[in-house]
From TrEMBL:
Gene: racE
Membership in a protein family: Belongs to the aspartate/glutamate racemases family.
Main enzyme class: isomerase
A biological process from GO: peptidoglycan biosynthetic process
Catalytic activity from the UniProt record: L-glutamate = D-glutamate
Binding-site residues for substrate, renumbered to this chain: D13, S14, Y45, G46, N77, T78, T188, H189
Isomerase listed as a keyword: yes
Function in brief: Provides the (R)-glutamate required for cell wall biosynthesis.
The protein, known as: Glutamate racemase
Entry GO MF terms: glutamate racemase activity; identical protein binding
């Protein structure tokens, strides 16, 4: 029988964004198997109501729980803001989000205590980053901005284009007049637009994605709970509810190796 420690890490997102976290998990924890679900069919989650995001997130969690997994990583800020508490209530394995790790990384990086946060409408409206940042450090200036155009740009394969540069520069212009020295990419899709974002903000701004710190947290939890895998060649699986073709194209570009993607249907429980 399979040992608990050889089970997979379930990673979820509304689409390809969580791959930015998955790549960092593979880098820091190369013995761990990943089962990744991107709910591309219902992407973007950002403009949806909290209730809807909770329902979709629980649909993915239920799918993952039917597979051999030992921890869940909600690699989506919108779903973390809306449903982390709910998922933690519903399952008896470790569940991690991406907002607290992102907040910690930004606090480590800032020198002038002025932090920008960009994310989806859902994440920005929830105030989850402000709360997470102020819980650790009460004396910060925070500039938050929703960037609803970014996720559709990534999902339709427009990264590394002049169109992406223009839309990103235009959207981020309100942040240029601030004194932020640190910018949190508060959506896991945004590291896929990092080149355009880098061009749009001052060179001195530290750009923070949650991926690295989230993988550190996962590693710490697995170690603490004696759940670190000792396998040599983990067999990752990738699932999407949308087109396997466009998903694998973006995944292969991001990972730099071929990715087999399986299509799935999700079923949604009714949740509060
Ligand atoms: N990658 C999700 C996040 O981190 C995104 C987005 C969406 O579907 O709007 O918020």
């Amino acid at each position: 029988m399979q040992q608990t420690r050889d089970r997979a890490i379930g990673i979820l997102d509304s689409g390809v964004g969580g791959l930015t976290v998955a790549r960092e998990v593979m880098r820091q924890l190369p013995r761990e198997t990943i089962y990744y679900v991107g709910d591309t069919k219902r992407c973007p989650y950002g403009p949806r109501s909290k209730e809807e995001v909770r329902k979709f997130t629980m649909g993915i969690v239920r799918f993952l729980m039917n597979h051999p997994i030992k921890a869940i990583l909600i690699a989506c800020n919108t779903a973390t803001a809306a449903a982390l508490d709910l998922v933690r209530e519903q399952v008896d394995i470790p569940v991690l989000g991406v907002i607290d790790p992102g907040a910690r990384a930004a606090i480590k990086a800032t020198k002038n205590k002025t932090i920008g946060v960009i994310g989806t409408q859902g994440t920005i409206q929830s105030g989850a980053y402000e709360q997470a940042l102020r819980k650790i450090h009460p004396d910060l200036t925070i500039h938050s901005l929703a960037c609803p155009a970014f996720v559709p740009l990534v999902e339709s394969g427009y990264r590394h284009t002049a169109l992406a540069d223009d839309i990103v520069a235009d959207t981020l212009s309100p942040l240029r007049n601030t004194s932020m020295d640190t910018l949190i990419l508060g959506c896991t899709h945004y590291p896929l637009l990092a080149d355009s974002i880098r061009k749009a903000v001052s060179e001195s701004v530290s750009i923070i994605s949650s991926a690295e710190e989230t993988a550190v947290e996962l590693s710490t939890i697995l170690q603490h709970q004696q759940l670190l895998s000792d396998q040599h060649s983990p067999k990752h699986r990738f699932f999407t509810t949308g087109s396997t073709e466009s998903f694998s194209k973006i995944a292969e570009d991001w990972f730099g190796f071929p990715v087999k993607v399986e299509q799935v249907e999700l079923y949604f429980p009714s949740v509060g």
